[in-house]
């Protein structure tokens, strides 16, 4: 197969700042579209079906985040391996990695989907889902489990495409998915003509239909464009897991997946505590978390782009560019995270009304939570960029340790033990406290750790570089911060 991909960007040559920005923007656009999709769905559910349905969706969304984390690490490891292979101009190796990763994704996704569908009521009971929201949540979550394999495979495809330097195709794919999902939501929720009304389950059915159609469109696009990652007929054997590749994916992917696992479990623990304060507090929390996605997505986009760019430069042995890529990433993340935070704070009540309608009690709670938590997301952005840079070399354990400590030894205990004295205030203040801890630990490892000597594949060459210093402004900021 010809290695042709006109949308693939060269990440190892030319100016760093402008290249990183142009590579990040399609990823940011895709993330914004994804967030917009979730928000539109939440508007339909919360505004027209009420707080109980919105609370159900908030609980299910956290479970979905947890489910995506079950295979997220393998996708991230594959992204880094693909980036290093493309940086070394070894496109055959890149396709071998894609084949092995795809087989893993499909297998695990099917197992998780079947188990999750069966145990849906038990999962929701373990989360203390409010009684009024439980029937909605069961109907919604079971459809999401059916959609999970498609969601996972499309997410894997987007990650490895970015690893190859192609951020445009995932953006177009997300745009198609969002248009389909948004268009189908009111149709399947409320029904029209011969289409019956499915209620809150209709929102999940819209997600399922959008994912299936988008997957078909992606396959057509990749093969018509002869994309460098599309397996040729004679390369279908690449779908059989290769020993060295699967060892690298598992050894590096499990710790990265554990990071998602740790975050999602902590989020479930948090909403379990939130649920104990009633339906208004849970609905408010569901609404503000929808707004927070717009703040997190720029940092995630920049961090993912930094990771892909660093991986390609490592593969090309361009270590001289790695620290400069990271500094630009930190700068872009600070700006892109601060701007939406300010917008949300200024819009305040108007923004929350989109999700909560005229529920004044829930709106008041949401406004209070935003004032406490939003500022910490700038710190989250810095942490995400630094962690993305070190993970691109295969140093995946230290970020996991930092994240686990900040969430389970700082944030969760902070909230749990102070709730009796301070009520829900302990939950809201645990966010900035935990974030500050995490970014401090990651920044210290970036500065003093040995991540530059790590490798992904066991036979990969190792070339150490001198420890680069952070710029003064970045260093002083990084030691103050973490993430959500």
Automatic annotation (TrEMBL):
Localization of this protein: Cell inner membrane
MF terms in GO: antiporter activity; xenobiotic transmembrane transporter activity
GO CC terms in record: plasma membrane
One family name in Pfam for this protein: MatE
Topology within the bilayer: Multi-pass membrane protein
Natural source organism: Pararobbsia alpina
Taxonomy, superkingdom: Bacteria
Protein name, as recorded: Multidrug export protein MepA
